[in-house]
Amino acid sequence: MFDAVRRFFKKSDVGRGRRARRGGDCVASAVCLFLSGAALADTPQFTPLDVPNHVYDGGWEHFVGGGLAVLDCNGDTRPDLVAAGGSNPPILLRNTSVPHGTVSFEDATPEALDLVATTGVYPLDFDNDGQMDLVVLRVGPDRLLKGKGNCDFAPVPFGTGDHWSTAFSATWEAGQDLPTFAFGHYVDRADPEGPFEACDTNALWRPSPSGYNQTTLAPGHCALSILFTDWSRTGSADLRVSNDRHYYVRDGQEQLWAMDATPRLFTERDGWARHMLWGMGIATRDLDRDGRDEVFLSSMGDQRLMRRTGAKPSFTDVPFAMGTAAQRPYLGDDGRPSTGWHIAFGDVTNDGRDDVFIAKGNVQQMPGNAMEDPNNLLISQQDGTFSEAGDIAGIASVHRARGAALVDFNADGLLDLAVVNRRAPLEVWQNTSAQTGHWLAVALERSGVNAQGVGAWIEVDDGSSIQAREVTVGGGHAGGVSGPQHFGLGDADTARVRVRWPHAAWSEWRTVGVDQVLVVGE
Fold it and tell me: Which residues make Cβ contacts (< 8 Å) with residue 9, sequence separation at least 6?
């Protein structure tokens, strides 16, 4: 159990103003990352664990995918895992960890997950009944599985059609009781001229009085990650799409769809800058605490960390000196470009600065890219740069990694790690770092529509500046996490918290203790 202190927001007399920032100098020309918090007293350390065997496998249609979903499927507050299997069936690993003890899992795969050709899995309470459901992406018709509360599921009819699905996101639009779904599709398998330059279109499903209406999002450029995100912090999410340039070759690019009544693409006239890359995954986080999220895109070659400039959707790459490109293996003598997949932000030492995990691995046997390609663990430094610690921390696996998650599996306040691998066993590491800082995990919970608060914003003031977090479903590479939002706090012994639920005003600030899971009701 999490030993959580259940607290619900009430009106508070605490002021709304931001506290003064503190910190040292930043890297010249670089985005200035947050500098305060406890100094890293010890190297981050992860210990590999024995878990039930699972392999993401299959032919060329499973070169991509391999997503991992994290959710509490039985209500015991322990995060469970569901991993796509490709030509193998998915697996559900029920968390049997003891609080503050060794992380452990058991195979509890239900009959409803006896599926073939799965590429990704996302957790979402799509029917508002308080039980976590699953959206399963497939090469073929996707599946919506309704949660029954005991890590069992039942299929729900939903006609997504026969596609090669590789990306998913969801949000609740204003005035709607049911979520809006977006499905990202890869190559159009029905195109006789394929697979090159034969990208499929994507699909938007919006609720209506008669059920759901589908809108085709075209052109499609072989999406590998999509994310509904309130990038402008105006209370309304747009849809960001990261595409695989390997297949669209000529005119494809990254995309941002404005969720108007009729969706439209942002263009240069809106301030959107044209970006072309082999896009694999999307992650967003306000790293420098300036009130605007950075966007991190995994790719073949450079990993692209971009910051927003101005009020429009204009993003520019951070300087190479930031140390985030992770463009080649940092171990061995293979100097060919890396291939990045899932990106996960998380403060692995709780020093108050977000670190970055990047799952790495060759698509299959692409000769232009590295084969011995270890996962990255980029540790945020006080001067605003990132330093590689994957080898020192013990997570530098050279399997072909795909989906991943940084999650506290045993309620000790440290983020653990799980990674799905192509043609190699799933790996789980327990975070056993010493001399770490304080932390706070914030879980949103209410009855009725959108119980997990998808689209909400959480702000945590640790006494020096404010960490902001948007609750989203989507992004990553073919999988995502539903559960408490983890904040490292460094040496702070209290924190102030407030929440803006979707399409609502901010709550009052409330002062809370640290080293706990804080459950926040509306």
Answer: 498, 499, 507, 508, 510, 520, 521, 522
263 Cα distance to chain centroid: 24
- CA separation for the pair 32, 38 (Å, rounded): 17
Question: Which two structure tokens, joined as six digits, stand for 17?
Answer: 């103003």
Q: Tell me how far apart the alpha carbons of residues 267 and 92 are, in angstroms, rounded to a whole number.
A: 42
DSSP tag of 374: P
Cα(162)–Cα(189) distance, rounded to whole angstroms?
9
Q: Are 184 and 202 in contact (CB under 8 A)?
A: yes
Sign of the torsion angle spanned by Cα atoms 482, 485, 488, 492: negative
Q: Which of 322, 330, 291 is nearest to 305 (CA)?
A: 322
CA-angle at 375, arms to 374 and 377, nearest 5°: 130
Please report the pLDDT score of residue 19 as a whole number. Answer: 30
Q: How far apart are CA 360 and CA 358, in angstroms?
A: 6
Query: What's the pLDDT at 249?
Result: 65
Q: Give the N- to C-terminal CA distance of the chain in Å, as an integer.
A: 23
Contact 68, 418 (CB under 8 A): yes
Classify 321 as helix, strand or coil.
Answer: helix
Q: Look at residue 522 in the predicted model and tell me its pLDDT.
A: 84
Q: What is the pLDDT of residue 6?
A: 35
Measured from the Cβ of residue 174, the count of other Cβ atoms closer than 10 Å reads 9
Paired sense of beta strands 494-500 and 304-308, if any:
unpaired
Whether this model's pTM surpasses 0.85: yes
Residue 151 tokens read as: 């890590």
The structure tokens 């610690």 sit at 389
Question: CA dist 145 to 75, 112, 114, 325, 403, Å?
Answer: 17, 8, 12, 37, 20
Residues in the chain: 522
Alpha carbons 333 and 126: distance in angstroms, whole number: 47
Q: Are strands 133-141 and 416-422 parallel, antiparallel or unpaired?
A: unpaired
Paired tokens of 291 = 């009130």
Integer angstrom CA distances of residue 37 from 405, 491, 498: 24, 6, 20
- Cβ neighbours of residue 470 closer than 8 Å, sequence gap 6 or more: 229, 230, 284, 293, 455, 456, 457
Least confident residue range of 3-17, 346-360, 441-455: 3-17
- Token representation of residue 39: 């100094």
Per-residue confidence (pLDDT) for residue 36, from 0 to 100: 38
